[in-house]
Amino acid sequence: MRSVQITRGVLALLLASTLLLAPIRAADSVVDDDEYADVQRAQLVVRKFVKEELVVQGKNVTVELDIFNSGLSTADAVKLEDALPAEATLVDGALEVNFGKVTVGSHVKHSYVIVFNTGSVQVTLPLARVSYIAETDSTERTLGGSSTMALYVMTPVQQLQRYALQAGAWASLGFARTPSDWRNLAIVIGTVGTALGANWMVKKVNASRVNRKRAAALRELEK
Ligand SMILES: *[C@@H]1O[C@H](CO)[C@@H](O)[C@H](O)[C@H]1NC(C)=O
Ligand SMILES: *[C@@H]1O[C@H](CO)[C@@H](O)[C@H](O)[C@H]1NC(C)=O
Fold first, then answer.
1. How many CA atoms lie within 13 A of 79 on its CB side?
2. 100 C-alpha to center of ligand 1: Å?
3. Under the cellular component aspect of Gene Ontology, which terms does the record hold (predicted)?
4. Whose CA is nearest to atom 10 of ligand 2?
5. How confident is the model at residue 106 (pLDDT cuts 50, 70, 90)?
6. Residue 57 contacts by C-beta under 8 Å, 6 or more apart in sequence?
7. Using CA positions, which residue lies closest to atom 6 of ligand 2?
8. More confidently predicted of 176 and 164
9. Under 8 Å between Cβ of 144 and 130
10. Fold assignment, 44-154
């Protein structure tokens, strides 16, 4: 009776150990795959950016690309293909570039100039694609994508308002600290602007009325 129990215990132990061993073997095979991936390869990292997050409709915006080889081998036949956001047109430079080789630990850079046709919109730059040969003695092309970035495109009027607010902060010598201060300042600037605009309109209407009266008087004299 006792020996039966021991046998059972041994069997249970054996079963448990095979269950424990199974995942370890799986982990071993993963390590094998990693070793395979450790074959000397190039790895390109592409950063795409614009210096300012706030840009203005109708003004030149320079898009910059920085390609870095963080791998263990030279990247060959490196090709960059970029795309424009729907709101912009290309004014200078190219969206497709062939760089040839990029050695380990080195950067290559590219830039082009675009102009946004619409304002008052948030735009996310589409990602640029890079393709290259990552292993020597291979012709297989590896594909990669760039980082991307969100921009806000101001209309020229919004840019003026921003300048006005900045000037306001300067004129108030730091008085406008809280968001509600900013809002009040914006309301004041808006009201003064509207009042000036309205006054100008009235003067213009009065002037044309005066001109019409003068013309009528001249016609009377000519009779
Ligand atoms: C905008 O870019 C175009 C093309 O590079 C250039 O001819 C023009 O002078 C630029 N305009 C400004 C204001 O920098
Ligand atoms: C416009 O003319 C009216 C009289 O016709 C006058 O009362 C008013 O003050 C004038 N407004 C301006 C801004 O000159």
1. 9
2. 29
3. endoplasmic reticulum
4. 206
5. very high
6. 116, 117, 118, 119, 120, 153, 154, 155, 156
7. 206
8. 164
9. yes
10. Immunoglobulin-like (2.60.40)
pLDDT score of 38 more than 80: no
123: left (phi over 0), alpha (psi -120 to 50) or beta: beta
91 CB within 6 A, ligand 1: yes
The token pair that represents 73 in the structure block: 């081998």
In angstroms, the CA 123 to CA 151 distance is 5
Contact predicate 86/107, CB 8 Å: no
Q: At what angle do helices 156-171 and 179-222 cross, to 10 degrees?
A: 120
CB atoms within 10 A of CB 147: 14
- Decide if 213 contacts 221 (C-beta within 8 A): no
Nearest-CA residue for ligand 2 atom 8 is: 206
* Contact partners, residue 158, CB within 8 Å, separation at least 6: 119, 120
CA proximity to 89, closest of 146, 153, 3, 36 = 153
- Give me the mean pLDDT over the 181-194 stretch: 68
DSSP string, 123-183: EEPPPPEEEEE-STT--PEEEEEB---EEEEE-HHHHHHHHHHHHHHHHTTT---SHHHHH
Angle at 88 between CA 44 and CA 85, to 5 degrees: 45
The end-to-end CA distance of the chain, in Å, is 142
Is-contact 164 189, C-beta < 8 A?
A: yes
